[in-house]
Write a structure and sequence with these properties.
The protein has about 130 residues and is mainly beta. The protein has one helix and seven strands. Strands 1, 2, 3, 4, 5, 6 and 7 form a seven-stranded antiparallel beta sheet that branches. The protein is elongated.
């Protein structure tokens, strides 16, 4: 398995507000049983930070190769990011698309996070909903 990953991290201050965004792209090639598979990973996120509150919107896609192979992350904990459930210990072979909205703030010396994720199969016609 070969994975090439690109992750520039950028912060920008626009119109006296602290805007932030990130972009990650990875391409993966894998061989199994004489068959070669290719899959792509894409993550986009943008948000704005206020005094004690941050708002973020994100999109993540773990691609599939025509529903035959899902982007593999053997060292990752997928359930932490994709729905907070143990449903995704491996990326489904149909792939996985997700969006999330999060609010983060500070209260009584601590930090709180409110996260709303929504995900679905990247290739619906391949049988994942």
């Amino acid at each position: 398995m070969l994975t090439i990953h690109f992750r520039p991290m950028v912060r920008a201050i626009l119109v006296k507000k602290n805007w932030f965004y990130s972009v990650e792209v990875a391409q993966q090639t894998s061989e199994s049983g004489g068959q070669e598979y290719d899959a792509t990973y894409l993550s986009l996120a943008a948000g704005m930070k206020f005094d004690t509150l941050a708002v973020k919107l994100g999109y993540e896609s773990l691609d599939s190769d025509d529903g035959q192979y899902g982007f593999a992350t053997p060292l990752a904990t997928l359930h932490k990011f994709n729905g907070c459930s143990d449903q995704f210990l491996n990326t489904p072979k149909q792939g996985l698309d997700g969006i999330h909205v999060s609010l983060t703030g500070k209260l009584f010396g601590g930090t709180w996070v409110l996260n709303y994720p929504q995900f679905r199969g990247e290739r619906i016609n391949a049988g994942c909903r």
